[in-house]
Design brief:
Residues 219-284 form the Cation efflux protein cytoplasmic domain. The protein is 63% helix and 9% strand. It is mostly helical. The protein has a three-stranded mixed sheet with strand order 1-2-3. Strand 1 (227-236) and strand 2 form a beta hairpin. Helix 1 (2-29) packs antiparallel against helix 2 (32-58), helix 1 (2-29) runs antiparallel to helix 4 and helix 2 packs parallel to helix 6 (174-201). It is elongated and about 90 Å long. The relative contact order is 0.12.
Length: 325
């Protein structure tokens, strides 16, 4: 968690510095497009500040009021960042329309484009680093902040090219057009970030994690694990909560059941980072016999006639496998 705080603090400090550089570029050139980029930097700083607080809060231990921890705040942080991005984009878009009818004198475009290109390079490198660290640390906040910075870098490079075109051609009316295009790009990325955060807050299933869990269970499958069903996964920040039902032979005693469940828990925790597993055990019924792999079963009613592979369709259903095949 200390690493997350350091990374987001680095993002905040660099964001403040780049915001200052962009406003200097605006005062040099009086370009509305540069003001657009500078205004988005204000959003970057606000978003990074909120992200820093969310990482601090998500690091707090579980308590009586938050038995699953505080990790969900990271989804809320990403949602707020998305909203701020969209608001900034809308304001920028309408200001661009205003300046199309009431343009300002633009000057020193070469100097302005150089400063904007420099900020784009720094944001791109930092954004790429944060996205990768966010994946490693399972942090949506770092991932979202990195994506935001990459968006800012792309818009800055696009702006730099536009400024150079204006400098060579003298077509200053492109200033408002470029600004409007950047605003639409910013709004689009804000929406994507909001969509991602809402999915997390609504416990939308992460297909990649579900498939990885099923893969690990299939690779390490044992004959006594007759089927696995009602698999559900929730994310709380970097923590992954998994619950499922496992069908075991009904004649297993409690110690044997506990041993099998402990082995499943160990397999998942060794192969899926930072998981907490809750397993409900179901006793087998005679309808399971035709796909049960237990050899020399003392209560088998019919021979095994079918092999049922575990996949996302049957493992996530709330039924034993003979009910969904």
């Amino acid at each position: 968690m200390k690493s997350k705080k350091q990374l987001i603090f680095l993002s905040l400090a660099i964001g403040l510095l780049l915001m200052l550089v962009k406003f200097i570029a605006y005062f040099i050139t009086h370009s509305n497009a540069i003001l657009t980029d500078a205004a988005e930097s204000i959003v970057n700083v606000i978003a990074s500040s909120f992200a820093f607080y969310s990482i601090y809060l998500s690091s707090q231990p579980k308590d009586q009021n938050h038995p699953y921890g505080h990790g969900k705040v990271e989804f809320f942080s990403a949602f707020v960042e998305g909203v701020l991005i969209i608001i900034a984009g809308i304001i920028i878009f309408f200001k661009s329309i205003y300046n199309a009818f009431y343009p300002q004198e633009i000057k020193d475009l070469f100097d302005g484009s150089l400063l904007i290109g420099l900020t784009g390079l720094v944001n791109g490198l930092l954004g790429f680093y944060l996205v990768n660290r966010g994946k490693v640390l399972n942090s949506l906040t770092l991932h979202a902040d990195g994506k935001h910075l990459l968006t800012d870098a792309v818009s800055s490079f696009g702006l730099m090219l536009g400024l150079l075109v204006m400098a060579f051609t003298g077509l200053n009316w492109l200033d408002s057009l470029i600004s409007m295009g950047l605003a639409l790009y910013i709004i689009s990325n804000g929406y994507k970030l909001m969509r991602l955060s809402v999915g997390g807050l609504m416990d939308e299933s992460d297909v990649n994690i579900v498939e990885n869990v099923i893969k690990q269970l299939s690779i390490n499958r044992r004959p006594a694990w007759i089927d696995v069903h009602n698999l559900r996964i929730q994310r709380y920040g970097d923590a992954i909560h998994i619950d499922c039902h496992v069908t075991l032979p009904y004649y297993f005693d409690l110690n044997k059941v506990h041993a099998e469940i402990t082995d499943i828990d160990k397999i998942i925790n060794e192969n899926v980072a930072n998981t907490e597993l809750f397993i409900h055990t179901d006793p087998c019924v005679f309808q399971c016999c035709h796909y049960c792999n237990v050899e020399n079963c003392p209560v088998r009613q019919e021979p095994k006639t079918k092999e049922i592979a575990w996949d996302i369709d049957n493992v996530t259903k709330n039924h034993k496998h003979f009910e969904v095949i």
